[in-house]
From TrEMBL:
The gene is trpB. Residues 62-383 form the Tryptophan synthase beta chain-like PALP domain. PANTHER family: TRYPTOPHAN SYNTHASE (PTHR48077:SF3), TRYPTOPHAN SYNTHASE-RELATED (PTHR48077). The modification N6-(pyridoxal phosphate)lysine is found at K95. It comes from Heminiphilus faecis. The keyword Amino-acid biosynthesis applies. This is Tryptophan synthase beta chain.
Amino acid sequence: MQHIYHHDLPVDDRGYYGRFGGAYIPEILHRNVELLKEAYYSAIDDPRFIGQFNLLLHDYVGRPSPLYKARKLSEYYRTNIYLKREDLNHTGAHKINNAIGSVLLAKRMGKSSIIAETGAGQHGVATATICSLMDMNCIVYMGATDIARQQPNVERMKMLGAEVRQVTSGNGTLKDATNEAINHWCRHPDSFYVIGSTVGPHPYPEMVARFQSVISEEIKKQLYEHIGRENPDYVIACIGGGSNAAGAFYHFIDNPEVKLIAAEAAGLGIDSGMTAATIHTGSEGIIHGSRTMVMHTADGQIAEPYSISAGLDYPGIGPLHAHLASTGRTETIAVTDREALDAAMRLTRVEGIIPALESAHALGVLDRRKFAPDEVVVINLSGRGDKDINTYLKYCDDAQY
């Protein structure tokens, strides 16, 4: 049975990870955030809540998701590669783990209206799915650019009964969708905001990481079943806001023997001006309610990010990841669009698994980093690539592998 752990994150009671985190919110939301904090800490100490959460993860999501030894990929890179198959979850990604926990918490608080933001659409689909299951009203904000490149997920959300609201400000991507969701929350403070990543004011970064911590909990148990040890040499995950990486890293953070690698989206290159590589190009600032690393323009405004991947197209990073990077606990590698596409096509042709473009960035690390033949490398395959087929067709139709 899975458990939600209380003690593995380096966070204090004000929501700070070192110098990053906190809750920078308008006064109108202060009471909402305080009530959320109280409800969340009460819920994770309640065996009934945890039991309901675990039951849905098992019977509805299909957990545990497999830990798959990618033998042909391992042979190609001459190391031992295991894929944590979050792409096999119901709805096709890791996002469902947090959506279940968050909507259960909303019902516990007596809420009936859910709002969410989405980039690649996976968090929107997951939230719409659980709202359908639990008879909750659901509004999802999504940027116009992302709607165009993630149309299948838009239609899935509508089929599930959610209202998808198009956001045309800025670049029409995840940052802009989040802005509008927060504006809606300010206008309708009785709504429950389900944030999809480890961003936002405290307790959201901690809460999302804990709901996703089932990923690393399972990795430890499954790796022991495979090779008789719980800890790999490396865990690799992509980071935009950072929810899948937080889940994959969670139970290894306190073990320095396990090296953690975060793959962020370099776009056309970290010096190109067309990037979402926040750790490489950002500086400290405040975005969406927390102090973290943020991409800024020369005049100090938040920069418009770019990535071929809708889910990594964000100009900030969760405060946990800012802390882990600044302290050297994680190594961050910026993977370009082309490197991610090449890695995705290799996995597809070698193992018969089409990854989400987000996950392809984590796979791209394999071409940037050498691993020893006896090392064990776990890559969190955070989602499946159905939603990205049109992008793959556009960029990879003449690729030879």
